[in-house]
Amino acid sequence: MSIEFNKVSYIYSEKTPFEYAALHDIDLLIKEKKMTAIIGATGSGKSTLVQHLNALLLPSGGKLKVLDFEIVAKEKATNLKALRSHVGLVFQFPEYQLFEETIMKDLCFGPKNFGASDEEAQKKAIHALKLVGLDESYLEKSPLDLSGGQKRRVAIAGILAMEPDILVLDEPTAGLDPQGAVQMMSLFKELNQKYAKTVLVVTHDMEHVLNYCDEVVVMKKGTIYAHTTVKEFFKDTSYLDELHILPPAIVRVRQMLNERGFHLPSDCYDMKQLCSAIAKEVKHHG
Q: Among 99, 158, 235, 246, which residue is least crowded by beta carbons within 10 Å?
């Protein structure tokens, strides 16, 4: 039940003076139940790519398969509502999408839109709110009374209340402080591991890629530049150098020490491993 792009292209404002090709013949297979990072420079096509997953955008060319749903360019897409019940898309600053009088009403909106009864929707809402670390005391509050971080959690809970199999997150930690960002990423990793959700994260933060993701898709000028595991990706920083993306701090430290004569293994990805490798080097040359 993976996600498969087959020669997918997308053109904005097709057949107008403003025509712009954002995706070019994308071939991509994203494994289910993995947490995959989508990275690349601004304008590389990341957001355009993920908006195809719940048919917010339909391909100009090629076809894609999401779970058991297939979307083919130039053919009328069917069962889009069913598809969107399985794919939850969280935009940047999702809290701007909060619009109801109370949090309960906001959380119930999605499930009821997909056919849940009032009672079912309320149960889903309460469960989703607990998943994001908020208790039932918030249900009758207005979204306007919440802090920025709480609004973000409620907005994500609104997506989770629909119980999607695939969760797509477009810069989900934008605007959050470091602690809030860690809490959000830890939540997404828990959803991936504990609830077997397939999670895709569009991000510029390489610390998040290293610490939370399993695989990395690198986009460049509307094409797939690389697709590999996280560990393989950070063994060689040439991709990041070429894309002008700053590697994670621990990778930079390892690289800096090797440039100064150390011979640290390329698979040191946490502080304990790095310190142990440095100690061995010092002892060997001491």
A: 99
Count CA within 13 A, CB hemisphere, residue 265: 13
pLDDT of residue 218: 94
Task: Report pLDDT digits (tens) over 104-114.
Answer: 999 999 999 99
Task: Report the alpha-carbon angle 181-50-150, nearest 5.
Answer: 30
Q: What does the domain layout of the chain look like in residue ranges? A: 3-247
What is the DSSP annotation of 1-49?
--EEEEEEEEEETTTSTT-EEEEEEEEEEE-TT-EEEEEESTTSSHHHH
Residue 116 backbone class (left: φ over 0; alpha: ψ -120 to 50; beta: rest) = beta
Residues of the chain with pLDDT under 70: 1, 285-286
204 DSSP 8-state letter:
S
DSSP secondary structure code for residue 94 in this structure: G
What is the rounded CA–CA span in Å between residue 166 and residue 85?
9
Give pLDDT, residue 252: 87
> Tell me, what's the pLDDT at 17?
94
Q: Is 210 in a helix, a strand, or coil?
A: helix
Helix (H, G, I), strand (E, B) or coil at 237: coil
The CATH number given to 3-247 is: 3.40.50.300
Alpha-carbon distance of 146 to 214, in angstroms, equals 33
